[in-house]
Amino acid sequence: MRSFKIDVYGCQMNAYDGDRLRTALSGAGWTEVQGEDEADAVLFVTCSIRDKAEQKVASELGRYRPGGGRKAPVVALLGCMAQRLGEDIPRRFPWVRLLAGPRHLGRVPEALGRCLEDDQLRVFLDEDPRALEDLRFPPQVTPGSIRAYVTIAHGCDHFCAYCIVPYVRGRFQSRDPEAILREVRCLADRGVREITLLGQNVNRFGVDRSDGFSFPRLLREVAEVPGVLRVRYATSHPVDFSEELVRVMAEHPRVCPALNLPVQSGSDRILAAMGRGYDGASYRRSVGLLRERVPDAGLTTDLIVGFPGETEEDFRESLSLLEELRFDQVHSAAYSVRPGTRAESLPGHLDQATRMRRLGEVNDLQSRIAREINETYVGRVLPVLAEGPAPKGEGFWQGRTPQDKVVLFPGPATAGEEILVRIVSAETWYLRGEVQRPGEERPWIS
Ligand code: SAH
Ligand code: SF4
Ligand code: F3S
Q1: Name one GO molecular function term (predicted).
Q2: Are 302 and 369 within one domain?
């Protein structure tokens, strides 16, 4: 029996890739292990979005330097960082034996088997950003797990000035809708109740296909797969945000009223320098439309502080945007220069201290806003999809509301069942509630 250990970094797309690699390797006779000492192969599914993400993996790789007489596992570097650094990797870490970019993961299972037989380096990176050798497996679902990701489109064509994704994930390419639906059916048969559809810009799903299969149609069809109780998606680019999308969210009971709409900055000047293709006014119009048609929707965003040239005034505009639009959550990041991107050569790069100070200010403000929003939930009764025991235990279970609020409630419950929970208290990052037992239901408060 051959064994592997897998470490997944980065975004949900990597989580999906990691889960598909697990399926593919199990099918090829491999067993997953947690300890590196017992693993014949160690796989890193990596991220390049910020320098820190890469540094973490580089220091992990350093630990596998051969020596000390112990049996060295086959080290495989997969995903975005492999694609970005390419042949630099074997120069820095000559013990890495397999390199595969995110569009070449289909080659990994067979190549990994061969790596056990010799000492050759195997490289699956392609200069062609349209090349695709994908894994044809549904993600492996751990028993009892009721949520799964499904990538619906690869790559990105936006080339925002700061971003490495188009360079490592290649050009935008929608997957075949029938293949997506087959995968969703298969996941639903294995007990998955919540599907999150993934893409760098899900709204563009189908634009590269001739059959007119659009994202709103895909959302509806996924939501109608028997067994699926909830569908979410990420990410929706503000440029392609559409009224039709809002309509599907408003009308379809299983399409969750939750939206991640990354704004990135509150300053029009910075948005233009980033090449985002919208300004604050049009972003506000999209949020207005969402709140008018889906008043109870959860709304999250992504924000970068310290983009080159960001003045204190630009930064204040980001803070006031957060105050004004009141997001449930903000995925904030300090700008990190990515080699080869347009922003690298822009003037006005800010020092680390300024970027960190701004990040701290955003996080403090947003913690307060998140808590205030969560407090408005106290007293409401909401449907919660039970996921399992809460990570910190103490007899509590965890689940989510349709808006994607995490709720802790006294267990046990049945994973995959939607129960009614009355919210009794609010924290910054989650809510606490009590399960409504039969006979004590309260009128639906929405
Ligand atoms: N496709 C999505 C974002 C994908 S990357 C969109 O268009 O919004 C996820 C997040 O990482 C981005 O939203 C951005 O906030 C952050 N990010 C990307 N590049 C970054 C960089 N160079 N420095 C800091 N944060 C970055
Ligand atoms: Fe990066 Fe922009 Fe593409 Fe998002 S839309 S992945 S931020 S280039
Ligand atoms: Fe990172 Fe690649 Fe995702 S760079 S954020 S793992 S697309």
Answers
A1: 4 iron, 4 sulfur cluster binding
A2: yes
